[in-house]
Design brief:
By secondary structure, the protein is of the alpha+beta class. The protein has four helices and four strands. It has a four-stranded antiparallel β-sheet with strand order 1-2-3-4. Strand 1 (48-52) and strand 2 (55-68) form a beta hairpin.
């Protein structure tokens, strides 16, 4: 019983270290108020750039595509259960994830940012 009583606080302390890191929005908010040179030094040259009414917008695009080929029912267990002419398996899967981070720049400073996409966490 004593070993369990000693192990519980150690386990609780171990779980404290399992916290998640900062979100993408939290990381990008650190650039607000910073000079444009800091933004470019840290994130590199933007993928897109446009100036409208004196405000310059820098867009950084992150895009990831994954494809998983399908599987078909094969093997002795599959045939024993379904028979040799039965269909089955899993269809192929295509997944596309992206996040566009757009910074509004004015007077050589980062004024704000927006996030758009399904992978901006």
């Amino acid at each position: 019983m004593n070993s369990i009583a000693l192990a519980l606080p150690a386990m609780a302390l171990g779980l404290v270290g399992c916290t998640m890191g900062p979100t993408h929005a939290e990381k990008m908010s650190a650039f607000v108020g910073q000079p444009v040179s800091v933004l470019v030094a840290r994130l590199g040259v933007p993928n897109r750039r446009i100036t409208v009414d004196g405000v310059t917008y820098f867009a950084y695009v992150k895009h990831h595509v994954s494809y998983t080929s399908g599987s078909y029912g094969v093997g002795p267990i599959y045939y024993a259960y379904y028979g040799p002419f039965a269909g089955g398996g899993f269809p192929p899967e295509y997944d596309s994830e992206s996040c566009t981070t757009t910074f509004a720049l004015q007077g050589k400073l980062v004024r704000s940012f927006t996030l758009r996409g399904n992978d901006c966490n």
